[in-house]
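Please fill in the sequence for the structure shown.

STRUCTURE ENCODING:
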C-alpha cells in the first residue's frame, strides 16, 4: 500500500506543479502585455518547466528505490 501512496503523491505533486507554474506564467504574461502572445507563451513555458521538475523528481525517487533494494 505504501508504494501506491507514493505514486499517487508523486502524480498529484507533478500535476499541481504544472498547473501552478502555468497560471503563474499566464499572469506574468498578462502583466507584460494583455493583447500579445506572451500570456500563452509563458503559460506553456511554465508547463514545460513543471514537466522537467516532475520528471527529475521521479528519476530521483527511482534511484533512491534502487539504492534501498541493493542494501536489503
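FILLED IN BY: designer on duty
SEQUENCE:
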Amino acid at each position: 500500500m505504501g508504494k501506491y501512496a507514493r505514486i499517487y503523491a508523486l502524480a498529484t505533486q507533478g500535476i499541481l506543479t504544472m498547473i501552478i507554474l502555468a497560471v503563474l506564467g499566464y499572469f506574468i504574461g498578462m502583466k507584460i502585455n494583455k493583447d500579445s502572445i506572451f500570456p500563452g507563451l509563458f503559460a506553456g513555458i511554465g508547463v514545460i518547466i513543471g514537466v522537467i521538475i516532475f520528471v527529475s523528481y521521479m528519476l530521483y525517487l527511482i534511484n533512491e528505490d534502487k539504492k534501498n533494494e541493493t542494501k536489503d
